[in-house]
Each structure stands twice: as C-alpha cells, then as structure tokens.
Amino acid sequence: MLYSSRNRSVVPCGSVGPRGARPLSRRGFLKSCAFAGAALLGATTLGGCADRSNKLRMGWWAQTDSIAPSYLWSQLLSERGYEVEMIFADQGPVFEGVAGASLDFALDAWSPLTHKAYLEKYQDDFDLLDPWYRTATLNWTVPSYVPIDSIDQIAENAGLFGNRIVGIEPGAGLTDTSRNQVIPDYGLEDMDFVDASTTAMLSELDRSISREEPIVVTLWHPHWAYATYDLKDLADPKGSLGFAESLIPFVRLGFTQDYPDVARWLNNFELTDAQFSDLQKVAVEDAGIGHEDEGVRRWLDVAENRALADSWID
C-alpha cells in the first residue's frame, strides 16, 4: 500500500524492491508508508485537486480504529463512483492536511480528550461532522493473569514489568495523555515509557502472553486485541485517561458544499461496540497486512453488515 493510493489501486510497500527481497514487517511497512504519506502531504497543494467532481483524498493513520473504517469507506465510496485516494501519515500531519485542504477528510478525531490539542489548534480550519462511535476509551491494560488491578499499583510493582510501560506511536493522543497525564499523576516518571508503534506494542503483548510474562501496555476500546487475548483494563482512580469519547469525521472547509451526498452519508455512519470490533477483526487482524480491501469485502459479504452499510447511504 504505497500511499497515496489512487482509485484504491494499491501497491504494498513491502513488495517494492528487488525480487526475493525480505518483505517488510507491519512495523516497517507502516513506517515507510508514513514517510511516503508525509512527503506527499508536504508536496501537495489545493491546486493539485482541481477536479473535485468525484475525487476524494482521505487521510488515515496506523491504528485499527482508523484503518478499518477508512478502508470501509474507501470501498463504499468507490462502489458509488468516487475515486478515493488514501493518504497514510501520522495523526498530526493528517489533521494538518485536512486543515490545509490538501486532504478532503479523515474519519476519526477522538473528542473531547485524546485529540484535544489538534481540535483546538485547527478548530477554525476544518468542520466536524456527527460522531459515528460514542464509547471509545483510552486504557492501560495487562493480561488477566497479572496480579494488579489498578494503575496506582504499578509503581510499587515496577520490577514486575521490567520497569517498562509499552506504548504506541509518539504522535498518538494516547501517548500524549499517557506521558503527560497518567505518568506524572501516578508517580511513574522513573519507569521506561516505550513509545514505538502500535505494531511493536501488539508484538510485545503477544510474546509476553505466550510466555505468561507480566506486561503493561497502552490500549483502547474498541480493539480486536480484547477478543483475541484475555485482558483486563487497569482501574484509573485519578481519571487521568479521561472518560468515554466520540469518534468524529473531520472535513476540510467547503467539503459539505462540494460533496453534500458524501457529507450526509458520513453523518449517517454509526457503529456499535460489537459492529466496530467485528469490522476491525475481519478487515485488519484476520485479513492481514496488504489485504485490508479483501477484509472489508468479506465483512460486507455478510448480509447484515451490507444492510447496515446500505442504511447509511440514503
């Protein structure tokens, strides 16, 4: 998926190079795509998108709550004659791209806490549509066999976790909240907070569980990991991670006038916990890297899922 991908014709980054070269891992794949996407965003101007009759540029980033719905809407819009160009980048450049109109829209601004900094910075530079998911939460999570139940027990058990907290991307809202709220609130400054990538975090989680070793990771609901592993979210008595949030599409200024049908469809979009978790599992985890399109098609092949999607397109 060398992003940008035009008209959903996608070339996997991991396949680029000499024949027989070792494929990129998901982590390496996403890092290379993010670099390409950021470079493309930096080189793109609004003047490059003169024909807006059926062309759309959608931003997304490397978390399943972004990957799954982005591929879903790429599929649904393509079925209705739109040419969808998916631009992969870190969260910050995606917000900047929509605010600067080099991107038309993205699907998952977390409000009010996780993406507060971006929403405040660009509040006059893009429009928010209606929330499509309303019970998203940020969490610090451990395997169920770990003998603690609350974040305020981590400090006294730091050695149990090798003095490490395993996070995700440095630019993620969850990372910012963890570093600037949770860690100081609970006196965890002496622990090593690892902010690498979601892929690296999930790899460490999987390895630790296979060995029944303690690990604490930053995670969020909904995520397919909760269906795959026996996990427990640690209590947050200080409320440092915030409370339930909404996921909201954000669109460039003028988008609703240029694409009134698409804006209306996105406003109709809504998923329950079970529907969103199932979409993430089928389209991302089960399908595997480079096959998200196929995963979305399999999800839509289920009659009740297709009926749900059709209900958004009035």
From TrEMBL:
Q: Which GO terms describe its molecular function?
A: amine transmembrane transporter activity; carnitine transmembrane transporter activity
Keyword terms: Cell membrane, Membrane, Transport
Protein's UniProt keywords contain Metal-binding: no
Q: Please state every residue range assigned to the domain named ABC-type glycine betaine transport system substrate-binding.
A: 56-300
| Listed PROSITE patterns | TAT
Which residues are listed as membrane-spanning? Answer: none
List, alphabetically, the Pfam families matched. OpuAC (PF04069)
* Example of a GO cellular component annotation carried by this entry: ATP-binding cassette (ABC) transporter complex
Please state where this protein is localized.
Cell membrane
Principal location class = membrane
Q: Which GO terms describe its biological process?
A: choline transport; glycine betaine transport
UniProt name for this protein: Glycine betaine ABC transporter substrate-binding protein
Supply the source organism for this entry.
Thermophilibacter immobilis
User: Which lineage?
Assistant: Bacteria, Bacillati, Actinomycetota, Coriobacteriia, Coriobacteriales
